[in-house]
Design brief:
This is Type I restriction enzyme R protein N-terminal domain-containing protein. It comes from Fibrobacter succinogenes (strain ATCC 19169 / S85). It holds the Pfam family HSDR_N_2. Residues 19-135 form the Type I restriction enzyme R protein N-terminal domain. This protein is of the alpha+beta class. The protein has one domain. It has helices at residues 19-33, 89-99, and strands at 5-8, 13-16, 42-47, 58-63, 77-82, 107-112, 115-121, 128-131. The strands form two sheets. It has a six-stranded mixed beta sheet, with helices on both faces. It has a two-stranded antiparallel ribbon with strand order 1-2. Strand 7 and strand 8 (128-131) form a beta hairpin. The protein is globular and about 45 Å long. It starts with a strand and ends in a 7-residue tail after the last strand. The model has no long low-confidence stretch (mean pLDDT 93).
Length: 138
């Protein structure tokens, strides 16, 4: 028996079980179980129009940084997820760069299927540097 939907614990609803959604849900579980991000700080399919009304883009996953007193456009983490075989790293980076014109996250996570890359914003150079993994939230 195949399932046409997956339950998203953040959006609290069944969503179509697309290959990209599988990557998104594995990432959500990782954030909750390993990185220990509180569920209420995670936004899935976050509309960037909440920050910039001129865009209709949506970020796959965003972890808010409200605990640190940061505004909406300065999240703790920005995640872009893509199904394996559908995109390349340069295309994923190009999409991310569009979001970085609006958002300034502390960390970035790119998930291309089961291949993942992590980056941290360097406070001195204001550039992202590659890191091995995300720190535990808090």
């Amino acid at each position: 028996m195949t399932h046409d939907t997956l339950f998203d614990p953040i959006r609290k609803k069944e969503v179509p079980a697309t290959p990209e959604e599988h990557v998104r849900q594995v990432t959500v579980r990782y954030l909750l179980d390993v990185v220990k991000v509180p569920e209420h700080l995670i936004a899935v399919e976050f509309p960037l129009s909440s920050i910039d009304v001129k865009t209709a883009d949506r970020v796959d996953i965003m972890v808010h940084n409200f605990r640190a007193g940061a505004p909406l456009d300065k999240p703790w983490l920005l995640v872009e997820c893509k199904a394996p075989g559908e995109y390349t790293w340069p295309v994923l980076q190009q999409q991310l760069n569009k979001y970085l014109q609006i958002l300034t996250p502390n960390y970035v996570m790119l998930a291309l299927g089961d291949c993942v890359r992590y980056f941290e914003l360097d406070s001195v150079t204001h550039r992202f540097k590659k890191i091995e993994c995300l720190p535990v939230f808090g």
